[in-house]
Amino acid sequence: MDTTKQVPSLLATSIGRKIVMGITGLFLCTFLIAHLSGNFLLLKPLFDPTDGGKAFNEYAEFMSKSPLIRLPEIIMFLGFMIHIGLAAKLTSQNKNARPQGYVYQANDGKTSIFSKYMGVTGSIVLIFLLIHLYSFFVKHRIIGTEETMYETVKIAFSNPIYVLFYVIAQILLAFHLNHGFQSGFQSLGLKKNPKWNTLINKVGLGFSILIPLGFAIIPIIMYIQSIQ
Amino acid sequence: MAKLESKIPEGDISTKWSKHKSKIKIVAPHNKRKYKILVIGSGLAGASAAASLAELGYNVHCFCYQDSPRRAHSIAAQGGINAAKNYRNDGDSVFRLFYDTIKGGDFRAREANVHRLAEVSVNIIDQCVAQGVPFAREYGGLLDNRSFGGTQVSRTFYAAGQTGQQLLIGAYQALSRQINMGTVKMHARKELLEIVIIDGKAKGIITRDLENGKIERHFGHAVVLATGGYGNVFYLSTNAKNSNATAIFRAYKKGACFGNPCFTQIHPTCIPVSGDYQSKLTLMSESLRNDGRVWVPKNKDDKRAPNQIPEEERDYYLERRYPAFGNLVPRDVASRAAKERCDAGYGVGQSKMAVYLDFASAIMRYGRIEANKQKLDNPSDADIKRLGKGIIKEKYGNLFEMYEKITDENPYEVPMRIYPAVHYTMGGLWVDYNLMTTIPGLYALGEANFSDHGANRLGASALMQGLADGYFVIPYTIGDYLADEPTTEITTDHPAFIDAENAVRNRISKLLSINGTKTVDEFHRALGKIMWDYCGMARNKEGLEYARKEIQKLREEFWREVKVLGKNETFNQSLEKAGRVADFLELGELMVIDALHRNESCGGHFREEYQTPEGEALRDDDNYCYAAAWEYAGDNNDPILNKEPLTFEYVKLTQRSYK
Amino acid sequence: MRTMKLKLHVWRQENRNSQGRMETYTIEGVNEHMSFLEMLDVLNEKLIKEGKEPVAFDHDCREGICGSCGMVINGRAHGPWYKTTTCQLHMREFKDGDEIYIEPFRASAFPVIKDLVVDRSAFDRIIQAGGYVSVNTGGVPDANAIPIGKETADQAFEAATCIGCGACVATCKNASAMLFVSAKISHLGLLPQGQPERMQRVLDMVAQMDKEGFGNCTNTGACEVECPKGISLVNIARMNYDYFKAQLKK
Fold it and tell me: What average pLDDT does range B214-239 have in this prediction?
């Protein structure tokens, strides 16, 4: 500290990368909220039989056509890319940090199991994301189809295997969020006050349960409807 | 005969140090970097010296046997550090700290050194706080103090029960800063095995790299030993397992006089021995005697659990014998009193070699104060107890946890069982006022020297002395010697280096070639038992004479029967231990010789033949008011006794009384 | 007094460059009052008598403060007790017939030197990079000239109790040193004395930490669980916060 040293840039350091992981992760959480609010329109026909998916289709139309949505969409896409790319980078560094593991594996009985499998839960959620994008986004926005978005969703959610896959993916997302939400705050250094920590932990727990539950409940309801 | 020149400055005691500082020679800044200083040891004295000398501009090399300088055993000091700050407004002063230390040491320390120690004590606290040492504080934000044994003021600064750790980390950080700047080169995991003397002056050392066995030669314009004490001669002590006397003992064998080797401190409050496999003893800080009351049952063989024994059947023997100081008498007094009770058959626990240290009344007392503070009406006993436990936990929490981990007993509920154990050695290399040994250019700091504590050290004074020597004494006094030394470096191809290295190699080869039948630890244990039984808390002529013969026999057997496996060129912990124990086997005898010659009792040196009718140490100031500085005279000759007479101009020689 | 017979699986490795392996030893008559290291002492005495090289392990104070000892016992850094160093672990934890796996701390930044001894000098280099207040000896203000609130002083003290043993690294699935580094950054960053260099300190220490090859923190909290001194994750949050701020300011 007696001389001025070259300080590496944020993205070249361990904590810097973690900070960016935290920021992108928490940003993606806001995306989940937006996405889920839209998805709830799928349930509108339940309460308003005259709707027939109209509200959802209008919403889908707006999302795909409005120029206002392009910028957030690109940011969100970048957010995903950075989050995933950094995760890969950090994971490989972490592997190198312990080339030889322990013969005897034990659990300390206190740490959260979810925190240890973020790579696994994240990867599965990513696979889900790709399939999910292919079934809806690619089909409508890239290939093009005559079906309305509501119809596509309805067909997809009448397939029990797809629904099962969707629900499992939501459970894994819950696991990922269970650790990821509060961990993002920790990486940003916002858990330095024990008073806030309890709040952050509680909100994180609620978020990690309610959001995936909200996502999962829609295909379940639509599947039940489809077999009636 | 060595010439003991104490170099005590002239003048009134309160101005000696400041006058000395302004008169001694110093080295000009541009020349300092041309002098290479080797500092051995990285504890409080070593790390603070290395850092401070490097800050001044010297080229410093620092060595430690541990894997990191932060692990030196100063780290284990618990209770605190004294300083004459008088922050309590309770009448403390430099003179009072000086007086307490001289008296506590039973008038066997040099007045001038002790006064200097008391003077710089205040600077130490300032320095440590500036470094960020997190001392305990009061709600107002100012520093807190507590009391220690042998004093009637509250002058001990502390950081929970981890004061040594915090101070050492402070010094370690200062050292790390210099390492980062390149002004100190750190050599961790390297052990000093020989000192190189050229033309009568210390000019270098031979070390062994503990990882790969490489024997290295290092030149230095001066060599500073800050290698701690030699309590491990006793095998069982509160010292770290690897604490050793090799550096100071090599110095002794090269001509440095060894001062008062028999002055050993037996600390009264340690966790008792539980079995033959025991590898070390754990101290329970003296600070516990602030609040803990020491007692044994009044009836012999009282089989009841301690909490079942009513007040009137308990003997609070320290409070009974020493009403003025009570449980806070000095360590030597408290230890002997515990031994007296146990020897008389009043000991507790399975081995009957323990006494109780009880916090029950302190818990209730603090609990009531706390209940008052919290404005609780008619608090129940359970509430008071709960609140009191909280306060005790804040003060001594880590010590209570340590105790419970070792003994599996909860000291908040049942009294601790404690017994005295070897803790500190007041003896060490004889040094003059400048901390130089009788070998020019060779210095000894901290516990490694003999200077400040006389025949008994007061609690919380070891940290003070280590840091005083390292931060505030050696940086001044070393210049007085170096100023007259040429800046040129001597090549390590000099015959003296070659000879020293060969001596080291021969010794190692010999240890490895014996391949006998007994392990190093077996010899070490046997030595420890002899020392504890005959040169421990109480000594007598007959026992000491017997012990000397036994040690000689054991040493002879060691060089015939020790089994050290492996080779030099590897990480070989048995070989490390063997070298250290070989030195202990000689040093033990020197301690016995010293104890035998001192026909008086003083401080920690208690000769059963010399005691008052009440069983207190009985000094003989007419014949023994001197520091004994032993000079090596060859393996087959008895060492030569040199005497440095001690004069007491400012503290009157009196029978020490804590009644 | 209970005694037991144990089967020990111990990592043996000659030196930095050699291949290690687990070896099995049986030890009898282990007394429940022994500390774990005393049990290893007994094993070593036995091995020496049999003409076999004893197991090397770092240890010194044996009272839980120097930070020398450290091994992974049955998959747990410093063994199964919480807030305990290896030397403080006692054999009453185990029972007759138990098998115990003893391995060195594993991290590429902590290379094995021999058997259970690892090189933790990376920690020293991190402190050297900035873990101090840059004051020279002498010329400092009176100790009470800097009042520090008790709460702040206590928090700084708690962070400063780190013994640098490396259990946090050993137990972290990523072999991250964040708890160790953050403890020092917190200790100094909380105190007024540490303010002038606070931002530069965190940048320098983290840069050195990265250079040493430790992994990244994934906030699992395993370090906090195994830390013998109970150093809290809050310290890592403080470090992250300071680091972010320092990066933005630079």
Answer: 98
Decide if the complex's ipTM is over 0.95: yes
Average pLDDT for B494-509? 98
For residue B571, list chain C residues with Cβ-Cβ distance below 8 A: 15, 56, 113-114, 117
Domains defined along chain A, listed by start: 10-94+115-227 (1.20.1300.10)
Residue A2 has pLDDT above 70, yes or no: no
CB-CB under 8 Å, C92 with B165: no
Neighbours of chain C (3+ CB pairs under 8 A): A, B
CB-based contact C132 B174, cutoff 8 Å: yes
Average of pLDDT values for C68-85? 97
Any A CB within 8 A of C109 CB? yes
- Taking the CB of residue C132, how many other CB atoms lie within 10 A of it? 27
**Residue range A84-88: mean pLDDT, rounded:** 96
Active site residues of B: 331
Q: Which residues contact B502 (CB under 8 A, 6 or more apart)?
A: none
| C28-66 per-residue burial string, b: 16 or more CB within 10 A, e: under 16 | eebbbbbbbbbbbbbbbbbbbeeeebbbbbbbbbbbbbb
Give the integer Cα–Cα distance in Å for B608 and B41: 36
Nearest by Cα to B550 from B583, B523, B573, B578: B523
Token reading at B629: 């500085």
Q: Are strands B59-63 and B184-187 parallel, antiparallel or unpaired?
A: parallel
Of B395 and B28, more confident:
B28
CB C231 within 8 A of CB C224: yes
> Which residue in C219, C236, C241 is closest to A115 by CB distance?
C219
Average pLDDT over residues A133-160: 91
- Name chain C contacts of B176, Cβ cutoff 8 Å: 124, 127-128, 131-132
Contact B402, B166 (CB under 8 A): no
pLDDT at A6: 67
Residue type for C18, please?
Answer: S
Chain C residues inside the 8 Å CB shell of A121: none
In angstroms, what CA-CA distances link C134 with B170, B178, C128, C206? 11, 10, 11, 18
pLDDT in tens, B546-593: 999 999 999 999 999 999 999 999 999 999 999 999 999 999 999 999
Cβ-based burial of B130 (10 A; exposed 0-12, middle 13-18, buried ≥19):
buried
When CB atoms are compared, the residue of A14, A100, A104 closest to C74 is A104
Q: Which two tokens stand for residue C74?
A: 């049955």
Q: Is the confidence at residue B142, as pLDDT, over 50?
A: yes
Domains and CATH numbers, chain C: 3-114 (3.10.20.30), 121-249 (1.10.1060.10)
Burial B630-650 (b: 16+ CB within 10 A, else e): bbbeeeeeebeebebebeeeb
How far from the centroid of its chain's Cα atoms is residue B103's Cα?
A: 18
- The beta-carbon neighbor of A10 closest among C11, C134, C247 is C247
Q: Domains plus CATH for chain B? A: 13-265+423-482 (3.50.50.60), 267-422 (3.90.700.10)
- How far does the CA of residue C27 sit from the closest CA of chain B (Å)? 14
Q: What angle do CA B498, B39, B37 make, to 5 degrees?
A: 75
C 189-248 → A contacts, CB under 8 A:
197, 200-201, 203-204, 206-207, 209-210, 213-222, 225-226, 233-234, 236-244, 247
